[in-house]
Amino acid sequence: MFYKFVKFINKLKTAYRRIKNPAIRKNYLVIDVGSGDMPNPRADVICDSIEENTERITALKTDRPFIWADIENLPFRDKAFDYSIASHVIEHVDNPECALRELERISRAGYIETPNAFYEFAIPHMYHLSRCTAINNKLIIFKKERWDETVDKKYFDIRYDMNKCWWNLHNLDAQALLTAYHWKNKIDYEIHGGKSFKKPKDLISESNAERPPLQSLIIKLVYWFLKPRKKIDLKTLLVCPKCKGDLIFEDGTERANCQNCNLKFRKHKGFLDFRLL
């Protein structure tokens, strides 16, 4: 009984931490980059680049202004947002330095969250390309140079064989498994290691895992109460992701063309697609 009570309290703390960020003022325009299946309740605009559920637990949510975009080449004006959130994104990207520069460019402050080094060593993921930690308010990123099929994959598979045990550990104290980094004006970081390994093509879908029922209920309630209600005109925020030039929109927001480099952007699955191939 005591164990269940502690687990419940920690679930509430995790949910509250996502909701109540003292750095985000009521009037702030907020973006969640790499929003996935659980966008931050405070985010006014969201974007993601991954369509499949291979790197998240449930289906992508598009319940507010949304576009397809890569974090390394974001299609937003300089300082378009007061605050950016990148939660469990940096460890997935090939070029974390470029991703951090883009977050710094489009927003005045932000929050970055990743699994910490202990998490990555204990439960390695085949689609996590780096290990992250924060020391003295500096984000330290270590690129993984290889994925060990004989060792790493075994531990990765064990996670799914022992799914209940993993969630019990995670929900007892999720904060102990995370790197949480807050920044303002400038992201202070170091990146170690050379080129990251290529993600395996046969990724195990994260949708095979399920969140515990209580956690799912908490998430649904949070979304119901705190879903953003601002009216956002995305056209005023967008630029070309490649050259950052102005866009011309056709048929409302059905199509966008760059005035500078002539790149053309179209809708994909109902949303403008700014991913660069």
TrEMBL record:
One Pfam family here: Methyltransf_11
Protein name: Methyltransferase type 11 domain-containing protein
GO molecular function terms noted in the UniProt entry: S-adenosylmethionine-dependent methyltransferase activity
Domain Methyltransferase type: 50-110
Organism of provenance: Candidatus Wolfebacteria bacterium RIFCSPLOWO2_01_FULL_38_11
